[in-house]
From TrEMBL, chain A:
PANTHER family: NOP SEVEN ASSOCIATED PROTEIN 1, WD REPEAT-CONTAINING PROTEIN 74. GO terms for cellular component: nucleolus; preribosome, large subunit precursor. GO terms for biological process: ribosomal large subunit biogenesis; RNA metabolic process. Signal peptide: none annotated. Isoform 1 interacts (through WDR repeats) with NVL; the interaction is independent of RNA or pre-60S ribosome particles. Isoform 2 does not interact with NVL. Interacts with MTREX; the interaction dissociation in a late stage of rRNA synthesis is required for appropriate maturation of pre-60S particles and depends on the ATPase activity of NVL. It holds the Pfam family WD40. This is WD repeat-containing protein 74. It comes from Chanos chanos. Residues 336-345 have a biased composition (Acidic residues).
UniProtKB/TrEMBL annotation, chain B:
Residues 146-329 form the Brix domain. Gene3D superfamilies: Probable brix-domain ribosomal biogenesis protein (3.40.50.10480). The gene is rpf1. Residues 1-117 are annotated as: Disordered. May be required for ribosome biogenesis. Keywords: Ribosome biogenesis, rRNA processing. InterPro entries: Brix, IMP4/RPF1. This is Ribosome production factor 1. It is found in: Nucleus, Nucleolus. GO terms for biological process: maturation of 5.8S rRNA; maturation of LSU-rRNA. GO terms for molecular function: rRNA primary transcript binding. SUPFAM superfamilies: Class II aaRS ABD-related. The keyword NADP does not apply. Residues 13-24, 64-92 have a biased composition (Basic residues). It comes from Chanos chanos (Milkfish).
Length: 382, 353
């Protein structure tokens, strides 16, 4: 089990209650669960890293338990009851230094301090759809849901939210615009928050200004947006909707930069890699897909047999694992490239290899060949 | 005779040596007296005179009539050759008798199908668990009996009404209701309260049924199909007498992938558990190339080897458009699978069911 779990770089929680680890280098998927004691009430609703070293994964189940999974040992090490079925599913899990933050659909946000039974409770209002933590200030969380506007809470002062969004102005018929926040994210290096709604809007709020209404509103598609994630490169956001449409939007002007193709069913989980231009998506079509954000091509597609609810990427490179030689990884990549010219692909590998072998002496030579290759590629493209 | 040969000689000339070319030309000239031949031989002569590029095709002939004429001849020629080849092969097979090699399997897009990784392995524990606990498990664990409500889009006309009536004779415990302009989202809670397990809505366009929404109750899933080639009982040739009230048997063919399994279970749960074999009636859902063909038959065992079947009708074809989780909600529902023509139909050898 331990060997298996250490090579996994993507973690996926499924509707059948199975935690799945996927290794993209080995192209294998593992189930970390006892197949004999499966049940629907262990359905995974939320996942989070338990520590910054990413050695433990927190898994929130429908029945109100939060399980701790050790990626080093490959087993569930801890089982904690953080709520019950009547309060609804988990909408978010987060960890600050030594305490666990949970939020359920009924709006009960709890902070579980390590070692003590006392909890700080916050009522975030009914029908919460998502709770997210600010990665820069880990004691700040945002909540939002159906008819429940975006609120930002400071866990050190849990009485009142430090920011409450105001609904947009009435529409041209002077009717109230319904509120339905489905997902949100904190934009790094600024106070801004981006949300997506069930009425296919993407909104950017800026709590540093007195304005409580969104500073930018964009519409995408005509179906409810379910998930959102911020890529490593700034100024854009990836959103997914219930019809399996995935798009990269520009946050400066609010235009669609491009769509990511290949999905068949609604998106449930979406996460961008913290450093690489990659985005992982999973959903009701039972596939985990990894797209490149640079050329928006599909890099990996893994069938995982159950409907998938959430996805968690480890921050190390997806293709690399400790034992692997770099060259090997390169080769896998080449095989993986989806719609490339085969002849061209093989050519690339050859140059790569040669450069590696002659790394010391003939570096220049390698560069020259590469240049040649590039020229050839350009010619071909013409 | 020369006429038929022409296209062939054309091709031959280009490849073979000059000597042969000249010979052919001579023969052409010798026979060149009829009016028809004139028109035909001219393009054949052209290659030698104007030196066509090596890839000469008939489409390069600019005169439409002549091009058409040449093309017809080419086709005739091809057909002739094909028939001869077939004759020859048959003779060879007959000559060899028992030792003849087995016949080649023809290439079809189905047997060239791209492998689908979601194909269900019957021993897979996870899929078995997933299916065992899904929305249909209540039916398959024999906890519920199907009860179906059939309705139409608003103000149905002609064929759609009859189609609904005939569907109701196939599915036991089916009730046809007039839509009365009601919204589906408001019908569904009432259906659940009255113990219906299915809501079937036939949509029509210009008096022809063209769509079907099949919604499993109480908690989904909902499938949306395109309906085509509907043939009602009256329009069928050699059909049997009206079907009886017995519970029919159900045959589900070729639902292999994970999505196919779900759709198959959706159809299976329409019919009651224990078929009444006395009725000798079978409902078939046959999936081929993602089209689901529905047929309704009565069978009879004539003797130990022979079976007679008689179609009772109606027959129609379904094609899955989308599968939605939960009961009908086209605006806010989450879709498990949506057919996307531009992305999914790029390969003709890829099938989803």
């Amino acid at each position: 089990m331990a060997a298996k779990s250490q090579i996994c770089s993507v973690w996926v929680g499924s509707e059948t209650g199975i935690l799945k680890g996927v290794s993209l280098t080995k192209k294998q998927a593992f189930n970390f669960c006892e197949m004999s004691c499966l049940s629907r009430d262990q359905e995974v609703c939320a996942m989070a890293w338990a520590d910054p070293h990413e050695s433990e994964v927190l898994v929130g189940c429908v029945n109100g338990t939060v399980k701790t999974f050790s990626t080093e040992k490959g087993i569930f090490t801890e089982n904690r009851q953080c709520g019950d079925v009547t309060q609804g599913r988990f909408t978010g899990l987060a960890v600050t230094d030594s305490s666990l933050i949970t939020c359920v659909e009924s709006g009960l946000l709890k902070v579980w301090k390590e070692g003590s039974t006392e909890t700080v409770e916050i009522n975030a209002g009914a029908a919460v759809c998502r709770m997210r933590q600010n990665p820069a200030h880990r004691h700040r969380v945002a909540t939002g849901g159906k008819e429940n506007p975006l609120k930002v809470w400071d866990l050190e002062r849990p009485d009142t939210p430090i920011f409450t969004a105001k609904n947009v102005r009435n529409d041209w018929l002077d009717l109230r615009v319904p509120v339905w926040v489905r997902d949100m994210a904190f934009i790094p290096d600024s106070d801004k928050i981006v949300t997506c709604t069930g009425h296919h809007q993407i909104r950017v709020y800026d709590p540093s200004t007195p304005q409580r209404r969104p500073v930018l509103e964009v519409q995408f598609g005509e179906y409810p947006l379910t998930a959102l994630s911020l890529p490593a490169s700034q100024g854009s956001v990836v959103v997914g909707n219930t019809h399996g449409q995935l798009a990269v939007l520009d946050l400066r002007k609010g235009l669609v930069r491009g769509c990511l193709k290949g999905l068949a069913g609604g998106v449930r989980g979406l996460q961008c890699h913290p450093s690489l231009p990659l985005v992982a998506s999973c959903g009701l079509d039972r596939f985990l897909r990894i797209h490149s954000l640079e050329d928006r091509s599909l890099q990996h597609k893994v069938y995982l047999k159950s409907r998938l609810n959430c996805v968690l990427l480890s921050s190390r490179g997806l293709e690399q694992s400790d034992g692997d030689v770099n060259g090997e990884v390169e080769e896998v990549k080449v095989e993986e490239a989806d719609e490339g010219d085969e002849v061209w692909d093989t050519m690339e590998t050859v140059t790569e290899k040669r450069r590696k072998r002659n790394a010391g002496e003939e570096e220049e030579d390698g560069k020259v060949t590469e240049k040649h290759a590039k020229k050839k590629k350009a010619a071909k493209n013409l | 005779m020369d006429i038929d040969e022409q296209p062939d000689t054309q091709n031959g000339q280009k490849k073979k040596g000059k000597v042969k070319k000249q010979k052919k030309r001579e023969t052409c000239l010798e026979k060149n007296d009829g009016k028809e031949q004139d028109s035909v031989t001219e393009p054949a002569r052209n290659p030698t005179e104007n030196s066509f590029p090596p890839t000469f095709s008939l489409s390069e002939i600019k005169n439409k009539q002549r091009r058409h004429c040449m093309f017809m001849k080419l086709k005739q020629e091809k057909r002739k050759q094909k028939l001869e080849l077939r004759k020859k092969r048959r003779k060879e097979r007959q000559a060899l008798g028992d030792k003849a090699p087995p016949k080649e399997v023809p290439k079809t897009i189905e047997n060239q199908r791209i492998y689908d990784e979601t194909t269900v392995d019957p021993e897979d524990e996870e899929v078995a668990f997933d299916e065992g606990t899904d929305e249909f498990s209540a039916y398959f664990n024999r906890l519920t009996n199907p009860k179906v409500l059939i309705t139409t889009s608003d103000r149905p006309r002609g064929r759609t009404v009859r189609f609904c009536e005939q569907l109701a004779t196939i599915i036991p415990d089916a009730h046809v209701y007039y839509r009365r302009g009601l919204a589906l989202k408001r019908i569904i809670p009432q259906c659940i309260a009255r113990g219906f397990t299915y809501l079937m809505v036939i949509n029509e366009d210009r008096k022809v049924p063209n769509g079907m929404v099949l919604c499993h109750l109480p908690d989904g899933p909902t499938a949306h199909f395109k309906v085509s080639s509907v043939r009602l009982r009256k329009e069928m040739k050699r059909r049997g007498k009206e079907p009886t009230e017995h519970h029919p048997e159900v045959i589900l063919n070729n639902f292999t992938t994970r999505l196919g399994h779900t759709v198959g279970r959706l159809f299976a749960a329409l019919f009651p558990h224990d078929p009444q074999f006395v009725g000798r009636q079978v409902a078939t859902f046959h999936n081929q190339r993602d089209f689901i063909f529905f047929r309704f038959h009565r069978y009879i065992f004539k003797n130990e080897k022979r079976v007679g079947i008689q179609e009772l009708g109606p027959r129609f074809t379904l094609k899955l458009r989308s599968l939605q989780k939960g009961t009908f909600d086209s605006k806010f529902g989450e879709y498990e699978w949506v057919h996307n023509r531009h992305e999914m139909d790029a390969s003709r050898r890829k099938f989803h069911l």
